[in-house]
Amino acid sequence: MKTLLNQSGTLLPSKRILVPVDFSELSTNALEYALHLAKKTNAELHLIHAYDFEIFMYDSVQISQTENDLEKEILQQLEKLKQTIHLTNPGLKIVYKAIIGVPVDEINAYTQKEKIDLIVIGTQGAGYIQERMLGSTASLLIRNAKAPVIIIDKTVKFKDPKQIVLAADFQKTDHTKVLNPLKDFAKLYDSHICILNIYPHIQLIPSLEEIPEGFRLDYSLKDVKHTFFSLESDQIIERINDFVEHHKIEMIAMIARKHSFFSRIFREPLTKEMSFHSHVPLLVLHD
């Protein structure tokens, strides 16, 4: 993979960043965030509008519109968006595509085919599932994406992630592979990673399985600044919120997998589960 020098002189890979767009305020805000990342890493930006034609036509007042007409209209909008971006970012490489099909399936297929490194998608925070395209797609990508995903609430504006919290549960993980995107961010922005473990009141000490995983995690992050934190609480989301506010965190990172710290959060009611990252980006890594 092509590499380049960042401002500090370290080598970073040239990335491909995918942004699902539906031309809403949500996707525009996510695109703004992605643009900052693309410019920092000289990444190639992929704009994808994936839609289910039958559902679109069921909801649309333009019942007579054909599939080809709709695709042509969307491609025109994507070209206009590309030209708008190039007004202020003339050297940025932009690829766009309109795809018919179930959005999350098409995004995952495109991600694998084009070797996408990162997906950036917008949400509306608590209750975002009501958003037609990006809402449900973001919810599914959180759990099932084929690349790391950054979830951007509509209120989030880009800030250099100098402080990142990794919500960790010390379960067995291939840290070398899973944590690479997080380490890329830390090196790119000279970030400090706060490794936060929240354990329930009934668990007084780490289990025998958790102790060696903690050491492995520490070793995997040896080349970036990091500190371990442990909090005792049964209220995971509230403690994350408190930690983010107290430590002025600019990004939350979590590893998505079944039967984990992550799944404990996502068993919460939907409006509650998403509220904890409303004010900062959420980086979802996949085991």
TrEMBL record:
TM stretches of this protein: none
Short name of one Pfam family: Usp
Domain UspA: 15-152
Gene3D superfamilies, A to Z: HUPs (3.40.50.620)
Similarity comment: Belongs to the universal stress protein A family.
Name assigned to this protein: UspA domain-containing protein
UniProt organism field: Fluviicola taffensis (strain DSM 16823 / NCIMB 13979 / RW262)
